[in-house]
Specification:
lipopolysaccharide binding; 13 strands; golgi apparatus; Leucine-rich repeat, LRR (right-handed beta-alpha superhelix); about 20% strand; GPI-anchor; disordered N terminus; lipoteichoic acid binding; 8 helices
């Protein structure tokens, strides 16, 4: 008897359908998005069969330990290669489960036959050691890999071990709420195609952690570096981390950090020559910080605590300067920033905060046409 789960994820075994159990999976009318949430004490995993026709699939395991499916990890995915190739999947999200590393690798091997482009892991605990790496990558050729609140038993080696199973060509890497960002740089490949690195929502990272993450000469074509809410404190330390890693981003986002305008022990630092856009919004700045790049295309200082307009000598040569949501322009800006819920006015900062919260959803909607 063919093991249908091997055709899907190697972790969704075909079980008997129970009419008394509500369907844990829902497929939209356009057969585009399929969402599964297996929270029932005795989940009907076979409900995921309807996801085979979807383009975007989200599967959450209800916090379960998936060790019971380890037997499926030994299945030869080549037997199902043609079926997997026929799937329309382009985006896949897996979350809310404890997954043995062997099972995770089996999933990646199976997805290597798919046309998947974007893979997201969130709220996962990966248990046990990763198996020995293959002679060549057998996993999917991803353009985007996103991880949020994923823990690994292998410590700082996890990223290098994971990437060994993915075909080269990754362009976007997002890592949030990481349990370990102390990467083993010697084990990391050079990200020859990576143009976007997002380390937002890692408040414990800080500048020292950033230096450890930005392994020298590993990001030769990086253009976008996003460090929102990542424990950054001074521009000089961020600049030093970029210099140490020989990173030349075009756009740098340091918003939603508690930045200091000056650092007592700051040393002069030369910013990357390619840097053209710097986002310092929502940073709690009471004055324009020292040590800005000498020339920028875009500088965003919105939604800070500036009580007066910046003087020309405080600013770099800049084409597009944003100052909205500061007290000198909006006397009620501080109240809006500190307590949006109690504010009777939807300020520019309130709108910006809401926009950031739904930016991921908007990006998905904008990209849906590419997968139709």
């Amino acid at each position: 008897m063919v093991c249908v789960p091997c055709l899907l994820l190697l972790l969704l075994p075909l079980l008997r359908v129970s009419a008394a159990t509500p369907e844990p999976c829902e497929l939209d009318e356009e057969d585009f998005l399929c969402v599964c949430n297996f929270t029932d004490p005795k989940p009907d995993w076979s409900s995921a069969m309807q996801c085979m026709v979807a383009v975007e699939v989200e599967i959450r395991g209800g916090g379960r330990n998936l060790e019971q499916f380890l037997e499926s990890a030994d299945a030869d995915s080549k037997r199902y290669a043609d079926t997997i190739k026929a799937l329309r999947w382009r985006r896949l999200t897996l979350g809310a489960a404890r997954v043995p590393a062997l099972l995770l690798v089996a999933l990646l091997r199976a997805l290597g036959y798919s046309r998947l482009k974007e893979l997201t892991f969130e709220d996962l605990e990966v248990t046990g050691p990763m198996p020995p790496p293959p002679l060549e990558a057998t996993g999917p050729a991803l353009s985007t890999l996103s991880l949020r609140n994923v823990s690994w038993a292998t410590g700082g080696a996890w990223l290098g071990e994971l990437l060994q199973w993915l075909k080269p060509g990754l362009r976007v890497l997002n890592i949030a709420q990481a349990h370990s960002l102390a990467f083993a740089c010697a084990q990391l490949p050079t990200f020859q195609a990576l143009t976007s690195l997002d380390l937002s929502d890692n408040p414990g990272l800080g500048e020292r952690g950033l230096i450890a993450v930005l392994c020298p000469h590993k990001f030769p074509v990086l253009q976008d570096l996003v460090l929102r809410n990542a424990g950054m404190e001074t521009l000089s330390s961020v600049c030093a981390a970029l210099a140490a890693a020989s990173v030349q981003p075009h756009r740098l986002d340091l918003s939603h950090n508690s930045l200091r305008a000056t650092a007592p022990d700051a040393t002069s630092c030369v910013w990357p020559s390619a840097l053209s856009s710097l986002n310092l919004s929502f940073a709690g700045l009471e004055q324009v910080p020292k040590g800005l790049p000498p020339k920028l295309g875009v500088l965003d200082l919105s939604c800070n605590r500036l009580s007066r307009a910046p003087r020309p000598d405080e600013l770099p040569e800049v084409n597009n300067l944003t100052l909205d949501g500061n007290p000198f322009l909006d006397p009620g800006a501080l109240e809006h920033q500190e307590d949006l819920k109690n504010s009777g006015v939807v300020s520019v900062c309130a709108r910006s905060a809401l926009t950031m919260g739904v930016s991921g959803a908007l990006a998905l909607l904008q990209g849906a046409g590419d997968f139709a």
